[in-house]
Amino acid sequence: MRRYIVAGNWKMHKTAEEAVNLALALIPLVSDVRSVEVVLCPPFTALPSVGEVLNGSGLFLGAQNMHHEPQGAYTGEISASMLLPLGVSHVILGHSERRHYFIESDPQIREKVGAALQAGLTPILCVGETLAEREAGETESVVSGQLEGCLEGIELAQAEDLVVAYEPVWAIGTGKTATLEQAQEVHALIRAKLTQFFGVDLAGKIRIQYGGSVKPENAAELMAQPDIDGALVGGASLDADSFAAIVRSV
Known about the structure:
This protein is of the alpha/beta class. It has a single domain (4-249), classed as TIM Barrel (Alpha-Beta Barrel), CATH 3.20.20. It has twelve helices and eight strands. It has an eight-stranded parallel β-barrel, surrounded by six helices. Helix 11 links the parallel strand 7 and strand 8 (230-233).
């Protein structure tokens, strides 16, 4: 049985001190929920201090991005080898904001996914369509194309550690949420594509999160869908009570 995974993407919010305070408030609210893998993804500047707070708590530390090279002349970038000593175990890759604002392509994201797996990190690979693409009936082709572009060449032995997050771009930070039917339909599509890549057994072990205005009010019914194995939470993860309510509802 797949273990649920709920990750909080704090984006460009919280100083190191604020991040520590949020983590300290959150730990006692969710540390007893062993059926859910809880991951906190603060900004790079807060990773060392939040990592210290999370040590021994049962919660996991995640980064919001990484470069595919282990080192080099890449001003402003962070490598897996820099994340690992901080206690980072997960990394978000291919988020729609990275794709949109920083023009990250599927081949670039593919390199990052491969580098993360090679380093022993759990990549949370984000895929999802825009509103215009959904209205044009292109959801299946867009999501399938992103999966193919980002997972081509990934070895079977590594793929079990992969997490995929379906985030319809039109639902991120908008207050809009995909209906249960819409969310499950795309999650089932993702599972089918993973089956094509890795076979039915391995695809059945890979966890697929839903992201896009996940709130305490809608988390439980979303997680009850057969192919939804958790949530990638944005705004609601910045409030300890709201994020804890999502975790506990799962």
